[in-house]
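Give me structure tokens for this 86-residue protein.
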Amino acid sequence: MPTRCTHLDHVRTNTPNTDGCEECLAIGQQWVHLRKCLQCGHVGCCDESIGKHATKHANTAGHKVIRSFEPEENWRYCYFDGSFAD
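Here you go.
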């Protein structure tokens, strides 16, 4: 049985800081998909992107719950539990 996310109490915001990956925008790099941190609003690129900035943010900031920042996608994921958070 998959682990359920127990970190939804860390969710603080649904407001994004930017309209694209913060780090990629700063260095002029392309991304594949975007993920938004639900604790601070950081927008980072997915692990299919060169920078993998969403995962790097989660690891350095300790912010574990993200939401897809893609149109028509409405899922959350918890890096700590390694599971989708519904």
